[in-house]
């Protein structure tokens, strides 16, 4: 490296190094320096991988506790590399796997000991600093190993073709291309790969420091395609998807694009809504017979006043009493009531949800969310007990239930609205902050059959 280079001190650890200022560089100089550092990094990575492979060799399982990693207090060579360098577990594994390919290049290594002869050109490209470790690793994993139908020579040819592509496409696309190349020379690869990915499927739930959950979901290929199609359908308008000729579809897409939520928040809320809808599926075909009852711990005073805090059993993070009431109303939670002195007053009564048949009846009667101006269909709605099941001992029957979309169900519980029934008429009572007189607003069904029946009833009354 020329001594005039601002990066000439990189290799001299006795000299304090501070990254030089780059704001004054021209575009050409900026890109040239970026390329220079990439070239340096590839050479360093090749050396690093060779050392990682030797660490792995000196820590091989047959050495037991006398192996290097275990003598240094690490369970595996990858753990030792992580401890020494601070890299991720994935990077440590890549260093070891690519480093083992470099070992095969050693001139003194007998040909009988070469583990992956079809990857010798890949290893040589890494050693020369023309191929990154990441690219080498995706070629290795994508091509796989020889079989009865796939020869070493065929894989070696495939590897050379992928090396030529590495500078033209991203590592992610190179990984896809490597699997495509393998599939082209191996009729059985597609099914075997799909089976392998299917076996690796998982869903893990981890609790974060703030009490919320983080979901890590590894899907198989079919599920990935289905999920991605659903994700694209949900977020299409936010990502500049196709324009719509139909005015209604265009208006819906425009509303989504102007939604104040971030893309991540929007996707979160949409998929949570889909999860809730799935839980309402036919219990004969959906996993689990019914939505689980959440046990909610709350004081009687807080539940009656609608203020304070409630807690879902097993979670230390408080939720509002309004959230507890809404959950009890919709999901059939069991309230565990405490008195002012901490004594248990009530362990709750057997929870009861609107049955599937009752929901069908509510859908036919209400036509969707009954909130004035809302156009959500029944499939997007929750069944609301107009006399609160938890606090007012409301009944779970059709007469005492109405359909509300989640947004308006939350608004009702959180902002002091209420729905009452007078015979067959349902009235929405606004909070005093909205209407100081609290004038009732009649709720009307959007079901055309219900409208027709009521119109006929009115015509009969008029004619009488």
UniProtKB/TrEMBL annotation:
Q: Which domain of life is it from?
A: Bacteria
Indicate the segments forming the HNH nuclease domain, all copies.
357-410
Q: Which Pfam families match?
A: DUF222
TM region(s), chain numbering: none
Q: What is this protein called?
A: DUF222 domain-containing protein
- Which species does the entry assign this protein to? Antiquaquibacter soli
